[in-house]
Amino acid sequence: MKALVISGGGSKGAFAGGVAQYLIEQNRKEYDIFVGTSTGSLLISHLALGKVDKIKNIYSNVNQKTIFNNCPFKIKRKHGSDIISMNHWNILKNFLKGKKTFGESENLRDLIYNSITREEFNTLKNGPKDIVVTVSNLSLNQIEYKSINDCTYEEFCDWIWISSNYTPFMSLVRKNGCEYADGGLGSLVPIEEAIKRGATEVDVIVLRTEVSYYNRMPSRNPFELLTSMFSFVLDRIENQNIRIGKLAASQTNAIINFYYTPAVLTTNSLIFDKERMTLWWKKGYLYVKNKNAEISPIEPELHE
After folding, report:
1. Contact assessment for residue 130 and residue 89, using Cβ atoms and an 8 Å cutoff
2. Is the pLDDT of residue 77 over 80?
3. What's the first-to-final CA gap in the chain, in angstroms?
4. Is the Cβ–Cβ distance between 173 and 105 less than 8 Å?
5. Phi, psi for 199 (deg, rounded to 5)
6. Distances in Å between the alpha carbon of 107 and those of 95, 120, 123, 242?
7. Does an H or E element contain 119, and which?
8. pTM of this prediction?
9. Which among 236, 237, 238, 256 has a CA at the least distance from the CA of 246?
10. Run of H or E including 2
11. Could you say which DSSP state residue 79 is in?
């Protein structure tokens, strides 16, 4: 059985989409299992349906308003770089409403419901493929994997949304008596889950470079400090997930193929810019194309 695993990574999910497009359309990969975390969970339903152009169009047209109904930060571009600072008024409004997070991402929930129809959901649920999204149960202090086979349409759309909620900057959701947040808080690269579900070959798209190529600049404000701290923690979780995944693969003789980003795309994946994400999708596609060209033998010329 073959599986496709896509890590979390916010706006960098556009790169993963390009990689997956090449694997599915050009390499003719047919996957039995799709497992995603955060932005990966947003991609996998459409990839399983073979509707690559539809999800590409979505990732090429999102912006901050598409994701946030109350954005907790401001973005200013200065000397070619993004400067992010807290939107104190929006944060205050959220707290006055009794919310527990700096911002709210209800618009993302609406986008998910609008992009996945009931017919598409039923096609997937009645088909042979297993679609799995990762969420973090903060109340029970555990990671949960939600399969489309165990969900209604509304439940599945909500789990995708929950998997993508990067708290405390996005919504914290109470469901089934528990508080849930982004799956990446515990399982950013869910390789082990794919292997547990029977995968013998796993293609893994990891939305960071294989080796760290940069040193973070000093934080200029509290918001940058928070995002830097979370990035540090998530990097450690990601490394642990990959090590555990490799160990699980060695115990079952499963094959893992890794696809990392060849360069740093962004230091803040909460910035959703249409032009950049369109470019990242193209870069992901060309990256795998060039990688395949490097490892493929040169075919001899044909002579009459």
Report:
1. no
2. no
3. 42
4. no
5. -70, 135
6. 19, 21, 25, 32
7. helix 118-125
8. 0.91
9. 256
10. strand 2-6
11. T
